[in-house]
Design brief:
The complex is a heterodimer of chains A (181) and B (288).
Chain A: E1 2-9, H1 16-23, E2 32-34, H2 39-42, E3 45-47, E4 51-58, E5 61-67, H3 75-83, E6 87-93, H4 100-113, E7 118-123, H5 133-139, E8 151-153, H6 159-180
Parallel strand pairs in A: 1-5, 1-6, 6-7, 7-8
Antiparallel strand pairs in A: 2-3, 4-5
Chain B: E1 3-6, H1 12-21, E2 26-32, E3 43-49, E4 52-57, H2 64-71, H3 77-84, H4 93-99, H5 105-123, E5 129-134, E6 149-150, H6 151-161, E7 178-181, H7 193-199, H8 208-215, H9 219-231, E8 235-238, H10 246-251, H11 274-285
Antiparallel strand pairs in B: 1-5, 2-3, 2-5, 3-4, 4-6, 7-8
Classes of the chains: A alpha/beta (181), B alpha+beta (288).
Protein backbone atom coordinates (compact mmCIF):
# COMPACT_ATOMS: atom_id res chain seq x y z
CA UNK A 1 0.00 0.00 0.00
CA UNK A 2 1.36 3.37 -1.05
CA UNK A 3 0.33 6.16 1.32
CA UNK A 4 0.77 9.90 1.20
CA UNK A 5 0.37 11.72 4.51
CA UNK A 6 -0.66 15.36 4.53
CA UNK A 7 -0.88 17.46 7.66
CA UNK A 8 -3.44 20.23 8.06
CA UNK A 9 -2.32 22.81 10.58
CA UNK A 10 -3.18 26.34 11.70
CA UNK A 11 -4.51 28.34 14.65
CA UNK A 12 -7.69 27.45 16.53
CA UNK A 13 -10.79 28.00 14.40
CA UNK A 14 -8.97 28.23 11.06
CA UNK A 15 -11.04 25.30 9.73
CA UNK A 16 -8.70 22.31 10.07
CA UNK A 17 -11.29 19.78 11.24
CA UNK A 18 -13.86 20.99 8.71
CA UNK A 19 -11.24 20.81 5.95
CA UNK A 20 -10.53 17.14 6.66
CA UNK A 21 -14.21 16.27 7.04
CA UNK A 22 -14.99 17.84 3.68
CA UNK A 23 -12.69 15.57 1.74
CA UNK A 24 -12.35 12.39 3.78
CA UNK A 25 -14.25 9.34 2.52
CA UNK A 26 -14.37 7.80 5.97
CA UNK A 27 -15.99 9.33 8.99
CA UNK A 28 -13.24 11.45 10.42
CA UNK A 29 -11.64 9.95 13.46
CA UNK A 30 -11.38 12.76 15.92
CA UNK A 31 -10.52 13.00 19.52
CA UNK A 32 -12.25 16.29 20.21
CA UNK A 33 -12.44 17.20 23.83
CA UNK A 34 -13.98 20.16 25.55
CA UNK A 35 -11.59 23.03 25.13
CA UNK A 36 -10.34 25.14 27.96
CA UNK A 37 -9.12 28.73 28.26
CA UNK A 38 -8.98 31.05 25.24
CA UNK A 39 -9.75 28.33 22.72
CA UNK A 40 -13.19 28.05 24.28
CA UNK A 41 -14.00 31.58 23.18
CA UNK A 42 -13.57 30.58 19.55
CA UNK A 43 -14.84 27.02 19.49
CA UNK A 44 -16.94 25.19 22.04
CA UNK A 45 -14.97 22.09 21.17
CA UNK A 46 -11.48 22.12 19.85
CA UNK A 47 -9.13 19.39 18.78
CA UNK A 48 -6.78 18.51 21.59
CA UNK A 49 -5.40 15.38 19.91
CA UNK A 50 -5.78 15.29 16.14
CA UNK A 51 -8.23 14.55 13.34
CA UNK A 52 -7.64 11.78 10.88
CA UNK A 53 -9.23 11.45 7.44
CA UNK A 54 -8.61 9.05 4.60
CA UNK A 55 -9.12 8.92 0.87
CA UNK A 56 -8.53 5.67 -1.00
CA UNK A 57 -8.26 6.14 -4.75
CA UNK A 58 -6.90 2.80 -5.88
CA UNK A 59 -6.59 -0.73 -4.56
CA UNK A 60 -3.18 0.10 -3.11
CA UNK A 61 -3.13 3.90 -2.99
CA UNK A 62 -4.43 6.11 -0.19
CA UNK A 63 -4.16 9.67 1.04
CA UNK A 64 -4.12 10.26 4.77
CA UNK A 65 -4.95 13.64 6.26
CA UNK A 66 -3.99 14.62 9.79
CA UNK A 67 -5.14 17.77 11.56
CA UNK A 68 -2.87 19.19 14.23
CA UNK A 69 -4.19 20.09 17.66
CA UNK A 70 -5.59 23.58 17.95
CA UNK A 71 -3.85 24.36 21.19
CA UNK A 72 -0.17 25.15 21.02
CA UNK A 73 0.69 23.53 24.32
CA UNK A 74 0.38 20.17 22.55
CA UNK A 75 3.38 20.87 20.40
CA UNK A 76 4.78 17.39 20.87
CA UNK A 77 1.80 15.89 19.05
CA UNK A 78 2.51 18.15 16.10
CA UNK A 79 6.05 16.92 16.08
CA UNK A 80 4.98 13.32 15.78
CA UNK A 81 2.63 14.22 12.93
CA UNK A 82 5.07 16.37 10.97
CA UNK A 83 7.80 13.75 11.16
CA UNK A 84 5.54 11.37 9.20
CA UNK A 85 4.19 13.93 6.76
CA UNK A 86 4.97 14.33 3.06
CA UNK A 87 3.66 17.91 3.04
CA UNK A 88 1.39 20.22 5.00
CA UNK A 89 -1.05 23.04 4.54
CA UNK A 90 -1.20 25.93 6.99
CA UNK A 91 -4.76 27.24 7.27
CA UNK A 92 -5.13 30.91 8.21
CA UNK A 93 -8.45 32.68 8.77
CA UNK A 94 -8.18 35.85 6.67
CA UNK A 95 -10.55 37.82 8.90
CA UNK A 96 -8.70 37.17 12.16
CA UNK A 97 -5.52 39.27 12.12
CA UNK A 98 -4.94 38.54 15.81
CA UNK A 99 -4.13 34.95 14.79
CA UNK A 100 -1.53 35.80 12.18
CA UNK A 101 1.24 35.75 14.76
CA UNK A 102 0.10 32.37 16.06
CA UNK A 103 0.11 31.09 12.47
CA UNK A 104 3.66 32.37 12.18
CA UNK A 105 4.68 30.54 15.36
CA UNK A 106 3.19 27.31 14.05
CA UNK A 107 5.01 27.75 10.77
CA UNK A 108 8.32 28.30 12.57
CA UNK A 109 7.76 25.18 14.62
CA UNK A 110 6.93 23.07 11.58
CA UNK A 111 9.73 24.41 9.40
CA UNK A 112 12.32 23.80 12.06
CA UNK A 113 11.33 20.16 12.39
CA UNK A 114 10.71 19.17 8.82
CA UNK A 115 11.75 20.49 5.42
CA UNK A 116 8.70 19.02 3.68
CA UNK A 117 6.78 21.27 1.24
CA UNK A 118 3.97 23.47 2.52
CA UNK A 119 1.32 25.78 1.17
CA UNK A 120 -0.84 28.38 2.90
CA UNK A 121 -4.61 28.06 2.70
CA UNK A 122 -6.61 31.20 3.38
CA UNK A 123 -10.04 30.53 4.85
CA UNK A 124 -12.91 32.95 5.59
CA UNK A 125 -11.79 35.24 2.78
CA UNK A 126 -15.40 36.23 2.12
CA UNK A 127 -15.93 37.52 5.65
CA UNK A 128 -16.18 41.26 6.31
CA UNK A 129 -12.78 42.81 7.09
CA UNK A 130 -10.90 39.83 5.65
CA UNK A 131 -7.36 40.82 4.68
CA UNK A 132 -6.15 40.24 1.15
CA UNK A 133 -3.59 37.55 0.36
CA UNK A 134 -0.67 39.93 -0.21
CA UNK A 135 -1.05 41.58 3.19
CA UNK A 136 -1.54 38.27 4.97
CA UNK A 137 1.65 37.00 3.33
CA UNK A 138 3.43 40.08 4.70
CA UNK A 139 1.96 39.51 8.14
CA UNK A 140 3.22 35.93 8.02
CA UNK A 141 6.73 37.14 7.24
CA UNK A 142 6.87 36.80 3.45
CA UNK A 143 7.72 40.24 2.02
CA UNK A 144 8.95 38.81 -1.28
CA UNK A 145 6.12 37.35 -3.43
CA UNK A 146 8.68 35.32 -5.38
CA UNK A 147 10.04 33.65 -2.29
CA UNK A 148 7.02 32.40 -0.47
CA UNK A 149 4.98 29.20 -0.44
CA UNK A 150 1.92 29.08 -2.69
CA UNK A 151 -1.17 30.77 -1.25
CA UNK A 152 -4.58 29.35 -2.05
CA UNK A 153 -8.06 30.42 -1.03
CA UNK A 154 -10.10 27.62 0.44
CA UNK A 155 -13.63 27.18 1.72
CA UNK A 156 -13.24 24.38 4.24
CA UNK A 157 -16.96 23.59 4.05
CA UNK A 158 -16.90 22.77 0.34
CA UNK A 159 -15.50 19.48 -0.92
CA UNK A 160 -14.56 20.96 -4.30
CA UNK A 161 -12.64 23.83 -2.71
CA UNK A 162 -10.81 21.53 -0.31
CA UNK A 163 -10.01 19.12 -3.16
CA UNK A 164 -8.59 22.06 -5.12
CA UNK A 165 -6.38 23.02 -2.16
CA UNK A 166 -5.16 19.44 -1.77
CA UNK A 167 -4.38 19.35 -5.50
CA UNK A 168 -2.32 22.52 -5.06
CA UNK A 169 -0.46 20.95 -2.15
CA UNK A 170 0.16 17.69 -4.02
CA UNK A 171 1.33 19.53 -7.13
CA UNK A 172 3.63 21.71 -5.03
CA UNK A 173 5.07 18.55 -3.47
CA UNK A 174 5.36 16.98 -6.90
CA UNK A 175 7.23 19.94 -8.37
CA UNK A 176 9.55 19.84 -5.36
CA UNK A 177 10.26 16.15 -5.86
CA UNK A 178 10.89 16.68 -9.57
CA UNK A 179 13.29 19.52 -8.76
CA UNK A 180 15.31 17.30 -6.47
CA UNK A 181 15.53 14.32 -8.84
CA UNK B 1 -5.56 47.42 -0.94
CA UNK B 2 -6.83 49.11 2.21
CA UNK B 3 -5.94 47.38 5.46
CA UNK B 4 -8.25 47.83 8.43
CA UNK B 5 -8.47 46.38 11.89
CA UNK B 6 -8.08 46.98 15.60
CA UNK B 7 -4.82 47.45 17.42
CA UNK B 8 -5.90 44.89 20.01
CA UNK B 9 -5.89 42.33 17.17
CA UNK B 10 -2.92 43.52 15.16
CA UNK B 11 -0.65 45.75 17.21
CA UNK B 12 1.03 48.94 16.07
CA UNK B 13 4.54 47.39 16.07
CA UNK B 14 3.24 44.53 13.88
CA UNK B 15 1.52 47.01 11.61
CA UNK B 16 4.68 49.10 11.24
CA UNK B 17 6.65 45.95 10.42
CA UNK B 18 4.11 45.00 7.75
CA UNK B 19 4.12 48.48 6.18
CA UNK B 20 7.91 48.62 6.15
CA UNK B 21 8.45 45.12 4.79
CA UNK B 22 5.79 45.74 2.17
CA UNK B 23 7.42 49.06 1.15
CA UNK B 24 3.99 50.63 1.47
CA UNK B 25 3.16 54.19 0.55
CA UNK B 26 0.02 55.81 1.92
CA UNK B 27 -1.74 57.09 5.01
CA UNK B 28 -2.19 55.17 8.25
CA UNK B 29 -5.05 56.55 10.33
CA UNK B 30 -5.54 55.46 13.91
CA UNK B 31 -8.78 56.36 15.60
CA UNK B 32 -8.77 55.96 19.37
CA UNK B 33 -11.82 54.30 20.88
CA UNK B 34 -14.21 56.54 22.81
CA UNK B 35 -12.83 57.48 26.21
CA UNK B 36 -15.29 56.26 28.83
CA UNK B 37 -14.70 59.34 31.01
CA UNK B 38 -14.54 62.14 28.47
CA UNK B 39 -16.41 60.50 25.55
CA UNK B 40 -13.66 61.88 23.29
CA UNK B 41 -12.02 60.20 20.30
CA UNK B 42 -8.86 61.27 18.54
CA UNK B 43 -7.48 60.64 15.08
CA UNK B 44 -3.79 60.20 14.44
CA UNK B 45 -2.32 60.19 10.96
CA UNK B 46 1.03 58.76 9.88
CA UNK B 47 2.21 59.05 6.29
CA UNK B 48 4.43 56.39 4.76
CA UNK B 49 6.54 56.50 1.64
CA UNK B 50 8.16 53.25 0.46
CA UNK B 51 7.73 51.79 3.95
CA UNK B 52 9.32 54.77 5.74
CA UNK B 53 7.61 57.34 7.92
CA UNK B 54 7.67 60.81 6.37
CA UNK B 55 5.16 62.78 8.46
CA UNK B 56 2.60 62.54 11.25
CA UNK B 57 -0.19 64.68 12.60
CA UNK B 58 -3.64 64.75 14.11
CA UNK B 59 -5.44 66.57 11.30
CA UNK B 60 -5.71 66.35 7.54
CA UNK B 61 -5.80 70.10 6.90
CA UNK B 62 -2.19 70.23 5.64
CA UNK B 63 -1.36 72.86 8.29
CA UNK B 64 0.11 70.69 11.06
CA UNK B 65 3.74 71.47 10.26
CA UNK B 66 2.97 75.18 9.91
CA UNK B 67 1.36 75.15 13.35
CA UNK B 68 4.42 73.44 14.83
CA UNK B 69 6.70 76.10 13.32
CA UNK B 70 4.46 78.86 14.67
CA UNK B 71 4.31 77.22 18.12
CA UNK B 72 8.10 77.29 18.26
CA UNK B 73 7.94 81.01 17.54
CA UNK B 74 10.17 80.70 14.50
CA UNK B 75 7.65 82.23 12.11
CA UNK B 76 4.05 83.36 12.18
CA UNK B 77 1.32 81.17 10.73
CA UNK B 78 0.56 83.57 7.91
CA UNK B 79 4.20 84.07 6.98
CA UNK B 80 4.75 80.31 6.67
CA UNK B 81 1.58 80.03 4.60
CA UNK B 82 2.79 82.69 2.19
CA UNK B 83 6.22 81.12 1.85
CA UNK B 84 4.67 77.68 1.35
CA UNK B 85 2.93 78.96 -1.74
CA UNK B 86 6.27 79.68 -3.32
CA UNK B 87 7.54 76.11 -2.83
CA UNK B 88 7.71 73.72 -5.72
CA UNK B 89 4.78 71.35 -5.69
CA UNK B 90 6.86 68.22 -5.07
CA UNK B 91 9.18 69.65 -2.44
CA UNK B 92 8.45 68.95 1.23
CA UNK B 93 7.61 72.19 3.05
CA UNK B 94 10.40 71.80 5.61
CA UNK B 95 13.04 71.29 2.95
CA UNK B 96 11.69 74.24 0.97
CA UNK B 97 11.92 76.53 4.00
CA UNK B 98 15.44 75.32 4.65
CA UNK B 99 16.42 75.99 1.05
CA UNK B 100 15.07 79.51 1.43
CA UNK B 101 17.21 80.00 4.53
CA UNK B 102 14.18 80.34 6.80
CA UNK B 103 14.88 77.20 8.84
CA UNK B 104 18.16 75.54 9.77
CA UNK B 105 18.92 71.83 9.54
CA UNK B 106 18.83 71.63 13.33
CA UNK B 107 15.41 73.26 13.44
CA UNK B 108 14.15 70.74 10.88
CA UNK B 109 15.44 67.88 13.01
CA UNK B 110 13.69 69.29 16.05
CA UNK B 111 10.45 69.65 14.08
CA UNK B 112 10.69 66.08 12.83
CA UNK B 113 11.39 64.81 16.32
CA UNK B 114 8.33 66.61 17.68
CA UNK B 115 6.09 65.74 14.76
CA UNK B 116 7.02 62.11 14.22
CA UNK B 117 9.12 60.57 16.97
CA UNK B 118 7.30 62.08 19.93
CA UNK B 119 3.77 61.78 18.55
CA UNK B 120 4.10 58.32 17.06
CA UNK B 121 6.00 56.80 19.96
CA UNK B 122 3.16 57.84 22.27
CA UNK B 123 0.77 55.70 20.22
CA UNK B 124 2.44 52.45 21.29
CA UNK B 125 0.76 52.82 24.69
CA UNK B 126 -2.76 52.91 23.20
CA UNK B 127 -4.78 50.03 24.64
CA UNK B 128 -6.81 49.77 21.44
CA UNK B 129 -7.91 51.74 18.44
CA UNK B 130 -9.27 51.26 14.96
CA UNK B 131 -6.78 51.59 12.13
CA UNK B 132 -6.93 51.98 8.40
CA UNK B 133 -4.13 52.13 5.88
CA UNK B 134 -5.08 53.89 2.67
CA UNK B 135 -2.51 53.30 -0.10
CA UNK B 136 -4.21 55.85 -2.34
CA UNK B 137 -3.83 58.85 -0.01
CA UNK B 138 -1.68 61.61 -1.56
CA UNK B 139 1.74 62.44 -0.13
CA UNK B 140 1.31 65.51 2.10
CA UNK B 141 4.13 67.84 1.02
CA UNK B 142 2.89 70.56 3.42
CA UNK B 143 3.24 68.19 6.39
CA UNK B 144 6.70 66.93 5.47
CA UNK B 145 9.97 68.20 6.85
CA UNK B 146 11.90 66.29 4.21
CA UNK B 147 13.34 64.00 6.87
CA UNK B 148 12.35 60.35 7.16
CA UNK B 149 12.50 57.63 9.79
CA UNK B 150 12.34 53.92 9.24
CA UNK B 151 9.37 52.26 10.87
CA UNK B 152 11.88 49.98 12.60
CA UNK B 153 13.68 52.91 14.24
CA UNK B 154 10.41 54.41 15.42
CA UNK B 155 9.22 51.05 16.76
CA UNK B 156 12.47 50.45 18.59
CA UNK B 157 12.43 53.93 20.15
CA UNK B 158 8.73 53.70 21.02
CA UNK B 159 8.96 50.27 22.63
CA UNK B 160 12.13 51.13 24.55
CA UNK B 161 10.35 54.11 26.08
CA UNK B 162 7.13 52.20 26.76
CA UNK B 163 6.36 51.97 30.48
CA UNK B 164 2.99 50.23 30.42
CA UNK B 165 3.07 47.05 28.32
CA UNK B 166 -0.51 45.99 29.08
CA UNK B 167 -1.69 46.84 25.59
CA UNK B 168 0.88 44.46 24.10
CA UNK B 169 0.80 41.74 26.76
CA UNK B 170 -0.92 39.22 24.50
CA UNK B 171 1.54 39.82 21.70
CA UNK B 172 4.66 39.02 23.69
CA UNK B 173 6.42 35.74 22.90
CA UNK B 174 5.72 32.90 25.28
CA UNK B 175 8.30 32.39 28.06
CA UNK B 176 8.52 28.75 26.96
CA UNK B 177 9.51 29.74 23.41
CA UNK B 178 13.02 30.34 22.13
CA UNK B 179 14.19 32.97 19.65
CA UNK B 180 15.82 32.29 16.34
CA UNK B 181 17.76 34.87 14.36
CA UNK B 182 16.39 35.94 10.99
CA UNK B 183 19.43 37.90 9.87
CA UNK B 184 22.81 36.80 8.71
CA UNK B 185 25.60 37.80 11.05
CA UNK B 186 25.07 40.54 13.57
CA UNK B 187 22.18 43.01 13.40
CA UNK B 188 22.91 46.37 11.86
CA UNK B 189 20.48 48.10 14.21
CA UNK B 190 21.88 49.87 17.22
CA UNK B 191 20.82 47.60 20.06
CA UNK B 192 21.11 48.51 23.72
CA UNK B 193 23.11 46.27 26.10
CA UNK B 194 20.08 44.22 27.24
CA UNK B 195 18.95 43.70 23.66
CA UNK B 196 22.43 42.51 22.70
CA UNK B 197 22.42 40.09 25.62
CA UNK B 198 19.10 38.56 24.57
CA UNK B 199 20.22 38.60 20.95
CA UNK B 200 23.09 36.28 21.90
CA UNK B 201 20.47 33.59 22.59
CA UNK B 202 18.76 33.69 19.21
CA UNK B 203 19.84 30.16 18.31
CA UNK B 204 16.44 28.57 18.81
CA UNK B 205 17.38 26.36 21.71
CA UNK B 206 16.84 28.15 25.02
CA UNK B 207 13.43 29.15 26.36
CA UNK B 208 13.01 32.85 27.12
CA UNK B 209 12.32 32.02 30.76
CA UNK B 210 15.74 30.38 30.96
CA UNK B 211 17.36 33.26 29.06
CA UNK B 212 15.87 35.65 31.63
CA UNK B 213 17.25 33.52 34.45
CA UNK B 214 20.68 33.40 32.89
CA UNK B 215 20.74 37.17 32.35
CA UNK B 216 19.23 37.89 35.72
CA UNK B 217 16.30 39.68 34.12
CA UNK B 218 12.62 39.49 35.04
CA UNK B 219 10.87 37.14 32.56
CA UNK B 220 8.51 39.94 31.49
CA UNK B 221 11.49 42.13 30.64
CA UNK B 222 13.05 39.35 28.53
CA UNK B 223 9.73 38.90 26.73
CA UNK B 224 9.55 42.62 25.99
CA UNK B 225 13.08 42.66 24.62
CA UNK B 226 12.34 39.55 22.55
CA UNK B 227 9.24 41.25 21.16
CA UNK B 228 11.37 44.22 20.11
CA UNK B 229 13.77 41.89 18.30
CA UNK B 230 10.83 40.18 16.58
CA UNK B 231 8.98 43.27 15.38
CA UNK B 232 12.17 44.86 14.13
CA UNK B 233 12.79 41.82 11.94
CA UNK B 234 15.83 40.50 13.78
CA UNK B 235 14.35 37.34 15.25
CA UNK B 236 11.37 35.02 15.21
CA UNK B 237 9.65 33.24 18.04
CA UNK B 238 10.39 29.52 17.94
CA UNK B 239 8.01 27.42 20.06
CA UNK B 240 9.91 24.66 21.80
CA UNK B 241 8.46 21.20 21.95
CA UNK B 242 6.82 20.28 25.22
CA UNK B 243 8.05 17.07 26.77
CA UNK B 244 5.35 14.47 26.14
CA UNK B 245 3.91 12.56 29.05
CA UNK B 246 4.76 8.91 28.32
CA UNK B 247 1.13 7.78 28.35
CA UNK B 248 0.03 10.51 25.91
CA UNK B 249 2.84 9.73 23.50
CA UNK B 250 1.62 6.18 23.20
CA UNK B 251 -1.96 7.24 22.68
CA UNK B 252 -1.38 9.61 19.83
CA UNK B 253 0.92 7.67 17.54
CA UNK B 254 -0.54 8.35 14.09
CA UNK B 255 0.39 4.86 12.97
CA UNK B 256 -2.26 3.55 15.32
CA UNK B 257 -4.90 5.45 13.35
CA UNK B 258 -3.95 4.09 9.95
CA UNK B 259 -6.85 1.70 10.16
CA UNK B 260 -5.50 -1.64 9.08
CA UNK B 261 -2.88 -0.23 6.79
CA UNK B 262 0.57 -1.73 7.05
CA UNK B 263 2.65 0.62 9.14
CA UNK B 264 6.27 1.52 9.06
CA UNK B 265 8.37 2.00 12.11
CA UNK B 266 10.98 4.22 10.56
CA UNK B 267 10.83 7.98 11.10
CA UNK B 268 10.19 10.34 8.19
CA UNK B 269 7.84 9.81 5.27
CA UNK B 270 8.49 7.10 2.71
CA UNK B 271 8.61 8.70 -0.75
CA UNK B 272 5.61 8.26 -3.03
CA UNK B 273 5.87 7.53 -6.74
CA UNK B 274 5.05 9.89 -9.59
CA UNK B 275 2.28 7.57 -10.74
CA UNK B 276 0.78 7.81 -7.25
CA UNK B 277 0.78 11.60 -7.44
CA UNK B 278 -0.67 11.57 -10.95
CA UNK B 279 -3.48 9.23 -9.89
CA UNK B 280 -4.20 11.29 -6.79
CA UNK B 281 -4.44 14.56 -8.71
CA UNK B 282 -6.67 12.90 -11.29
CA UNK B 283 -8.91 11.50 -8.57
CA UNK B 284 -9.18 14.86 -6.78
CA UNK B 285 -9.97 16.67 -10.03
CA UNK B 286 -13.06 14.49 -10.20
CA UNK B 287 -14.24 16.13 -6.97
CA UNK B 288 -13.72 19.71 -8.10
Amino acid sequence: MEIMRLVVTGPVGAGKSTFIRSVSEIEVVDTDRRATDEALLIKKRTTVAFDFGRLQFGPDMALHLYGTPGQSRFDFMWDILIQKAHAYILLVAAHRPHEFREARRIMMFMQQRSPVPMIIGLTHTDCPNAWDAANIALALGYPNPNRRPPLVTVNANETASVAQAVIALVQHTWSGSLATT
Amino acid sequence: MTVTGYLADFSLPELFQLLEQGNKTGLLTICTLTDTLTAERFNHHIWFSQGQIVAAGNALDQRGLMRLIAQRGWMGDNAVSRLAQTCQINTPLGLCLKNQGVLTAEQLKLLFYTQVMRQVCALFALPDGWFQFDPKAPTPRAEMTGLIATATDVTLAGLRALKDWNALAEKLPDPSSALVSTVEGKPSLRLNPNEWQVWEFTNGTMALADVAKQLNLPVAKAQQIAFRLIVTGLAEEMPLMATPPTSSANLIDPESLELGVASTTSSGAAPVSNSFLQNLVGFLKGKV
